[in-house]
């Protein structure tokens, strides 16, 4: 194996590890939601607001970090970011009330905002287009792997000790990865494209250039819908299982680790392989694949929610299948973004995409679901003629609120199909522009047309 190949593989696996600890740390709160809710007598809206605070800061800080990733050392950005969020995750365990936990989650959001723009920009320069979906799928494996271990390990720690120790544990692997990030050898920007590596971008504001691409606009809308769903289900599934299926904390987090984590590995790897194969025969293949799998996910999640209390096996099959289909989204869409964006704007494009994903999607998913849950719980209490809120009414409210997820999956399928209709034209525009840049770069100054 050549030295370049070794460096490339090392970089990819370090980025995978960083992404895994990224999602591990942010998912701890969902794994221990019920103990925290009961200790501080919180509503589901208050729990959802914790998630909203994290994602709003994550999105806002992501924009300047995206621009920084296009001009500065990406490995240093990652190293500082990982170290910051790891320390603040541990500090979350010391929170003495809701406000203190709220503040620490804001800090974690600042650190984690460094991951996506810098890592995606690095992968775009490490791998050529024909291999990029698989590389991005390996990077995105950090999502289900992080979720799987976060639910599994955090649930065990919280069951044997307390919810606070679950936060302390996460700091150690994060700090180790912050050190390894500094060992990555950064590639030249645009090195994998077969074009001039000199940083160039189309004329105009970088933000307006990105937003002027029709496919990007459809993808941004899809990201908002998808992240609403992912953060809603990740935030409340253990609580749903404990309330509606009467599971203990350890059992609820174990089931969640399977249907939201383990199945994602299959979805991402299978999706990455299929997306690359389809992209070789048709330019819209990646986005069409994501649209079809999202259309399959909608009824699967609906039937999972329809399962009666105690029907654990059926719930795992339906929810696991639906979740696996949802993970294919990342394999197709992330690669499609890089298909229509020049190398010098990839950090900016990912930052804009993530800004919309988190401002319009992830920030609203937990709090929106929490508000719906509280609304339906009060409605159930009124229908029963009761005057006090009980755990039974809270279970009914959360169950009703969760049905928003399959509904948005169906809408998302049509948005992704619309993106597939514009991607071929946007890819051709980029190729034409890059070709013109290369011709201009190879032409002597005295021969260029003024």
In short:
The chain is 81% helix and 0% strand.
Shape: globular
Total strand count, please? Answer: 0
Number of helices: 19
Mean pLDDT comes to 85
User: Structural class given helices, strands, pairing?
Assistant: mainly alpha
Q: Class, according to the CATH hierarchy?
A: Mainly Alpha
Oligomeric assembly = single chain
N-to-C SSE string, H for helix and E for strand: HHHHHHHHHHHHHHHHHHH
Helix content: over 70%
> Largest sheet, described in full?
none
CATH homologous superfamily (4th level) name: MFS general substrate transporter like domains
Count of individual domains: 1
Termini distance?
47 Å
**Strand residues, percent:** under 5%
Per CATH, what is the topology?
Growth Hormone, Chain: A
Q: SSE layout and pairings?
A:
Elements: H1 3-31, H2 33-40, H3 44-69, H4 74-92, H5 98-112, H6 115-126, H7 129-140, H8 142-160, H9 163-169, H10 171-181, H11 206-211, H12 214-244, H13 249-281, H14 285-305, H15 312-339, H16 346-362, H17 364-383, H18 391-401, H19 404-442
Helix pairs in contact: 1-4, 1-6, 1-7, 1-8, 1-10, 1-12, 3-5, 3-6, 3-16, 3-17, 4-5, 4-6, 4-9, 4-10, 6-16, 7-13, 7-15, 8-9, 8-13, 12-13, 12-15, 12-16, 12-17, 12-18, 12-19, 13-14, 13-15, 14-15, 14-19, 17-18
């Amino acid at each position: 194996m050549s030295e370049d190949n070794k460096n490339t593989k090392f970089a990819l696996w370090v980025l995978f590890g960083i992404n895994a600890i990224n999602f591990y740390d942010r998912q701890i709160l969902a794994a221990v939601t019920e103990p925290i809710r009961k200790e501080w007598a919180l509503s589901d809206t208050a729990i959802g607001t914790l998630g909203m605070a994290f994602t709003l800061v994550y999105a806002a800080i992501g924009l300047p970090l995206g621009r920084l990733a296009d001009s500065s050392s990406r490995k240093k950005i990652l190293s500082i970011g990982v170290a910051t969020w790891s320390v603040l995750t541990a500090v979350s365990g010391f929170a003495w009330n809701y406000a203190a936990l709220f503040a620490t989650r804001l800090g974690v959001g600042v650190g984690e905002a460094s991951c996506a723009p810098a890592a995606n920009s690095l992968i775009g320069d490490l791998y050529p287009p024909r291999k990029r979906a698989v590389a991005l799928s390996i990077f995105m494996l950090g999502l289900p792997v992080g979720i799987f271990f976060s639910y599994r390990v955090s649930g065990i720690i919280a069951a044997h000790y307390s919810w606070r120790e679950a936060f302390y544990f996460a700091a150690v692997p994060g700090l180790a990865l912050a050190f390894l990030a500094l060992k990555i050898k950064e590639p030249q920007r645009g090195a994998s494209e077969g074009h001039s590596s000199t940083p160039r971008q189309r004329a105009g504001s970088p933000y307006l250039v990105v937003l002027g691409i029709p496919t990007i606009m459809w993808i941004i809308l899809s990201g908002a819908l998808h992240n609403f769903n992912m953060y809603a289900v990740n935030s409340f599934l253990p609580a749903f299982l404990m309330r509606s299926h009467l599971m203990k904390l350890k059992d609820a987090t174990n089931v969640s680790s399977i249907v939201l984590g383990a199945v994602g590995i299959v979805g991402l790897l299978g999706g990455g392989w299929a997306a690359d194969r389809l992209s070789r025969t048709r330019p819209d293949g990646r986005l069409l694949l994501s649209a079809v799998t999202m259309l399959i996910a909608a009824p699967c999640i609906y039937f999972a929610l329809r399962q009666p209390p105690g029907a654990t096996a059926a719930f795992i099959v339906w929810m696991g299948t639906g979740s696996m289909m949802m993970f294919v989204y990342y394999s197709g869409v992330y690669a499609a973004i890089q298909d229509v964006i020049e190398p010098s704007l990839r950090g900016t494009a990912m930052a804009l995409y993530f800004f919309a994903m988190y401002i319009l999607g992830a920030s609203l998913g937990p709090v929106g679901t929490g508000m719906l849950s509280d609304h339906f719980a009060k409605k159930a209490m009124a229908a029963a003629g009761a005057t006090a809120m009980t755990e039974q009414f809270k279970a009914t409210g959360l169950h009703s609120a969760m049905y928003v997820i399959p509904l948005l999956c169906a809408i998302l399928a049509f948005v992704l199909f619309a993106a597939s209709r514009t991607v071929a034209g946007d890819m051709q525009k980029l190729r034409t522009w890059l070709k013109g840049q290369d011709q201009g770069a190879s032409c002597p100054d005295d021969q260029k047309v003024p």
